[in-house]
Amino acid sequence: xxxxxxxxxxxxxxAPAPSAAGTKSTxxxxxxxxxxxxxxxxxxxxxxxxALAEAGIPTQxxxxxxxxxxxxxxxxxxxxxxxxxxxxxxxxxxxxxx
Length: 98
Prior knowledge:
Layout: H1 2-11, H2 28-38, E1 43-44, H3 45-54, H4 61-69, E2 78-82, E3 85-88
Helix pairs in contact: 1-3
């Protein structure tokens, strides 16, 4: 678990940049997608929370789990690979896996 946290911190994105219109910042789930894209595989929610905190996006664990669970494939880009461990659909698991 410590290795996952260290990897997530090393891969954490800088603070989210505003969009071209300058009115919207990156959401927590978009930031998680960015972290997972740079990670070598699925990450536990603790590592994702740590990576988001490093990027200046504070979030609570339960809130993040709820948000990611609502965006599991095929509705969204995430798959659950183990308890509270999330990856990207197509790369870390089948696109339709719950």
